[in-house]
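Hello again, I could really use a second opinion on something today. I've been staring at a protein lately and its backbone has me curious. Please have a think about how the structure follows from the sequence. I owe you a coffee for this, so here goes:
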Amino acid sequence: MRYVEMLTAVRCAVATILVKQHGIRPSEVARALGVSPATVTQYLKGRTGTLEELKREPALWSRIEVFSEEIAKGIRYGLRGSWGTEVEELAMSLLREMKGFERPRALEDATRLSLLRRIELEEKSAAKALELASRTGDPLVSMLLRQIASDSMRHADILSTLLRTVGEEGVSTGHDYRTLKELLDFEEQAESENLLELVRTEDPLVKALLLSIDLDERKHETVLRELLRRAGG
């Protein structure tokens, strides 16, 4: 399958899941995917996209369902408008996975330089957010700023790790399958309770915070499943 075919298949799958499983209006789906309403209509009729091939791969289909649920939450709570770029990235990721895992090539010098600049920006953002958090007298705003600082530092840490490891030979981490499975069970229990539905609020800031927690749980679940797979599970 080529990238264009995979992208069409993913868009078709996401559109179908959003409309039929989450009750999102086709017009909203079109806006979220960056396509025309007529294209969404074609997706729903099953005339485009290689859906059956994706459905035969449970791991890939599960990722599409999780991704679609995140979009549904964002649309429902008015937090974002378009996920076009994310859909394209997901399609590329799924295509690579279907073709089999390949060890990443070493980063080019220009890429390394760009990542170093991004790390510096993330660190500056974290410092500024912490400074602002210490000044405000609003507990909610302070907590939001501290979350931004924490996220920025985490982003810098991730990028620093990628700079050190991408293109290098993998090192066995000796994953403990049982412990990973227990952790996944905890994450699944936490994720089963939707905070946005549990805490009814119209405050956009509170909504954003609760959604960020729900999305983190989804991300944790995806990461742990991959670690389990690599550990031989």
About this structure: The two ends are 27 Å apart (CA to CA). The first helix runs from residue 3 to 20.
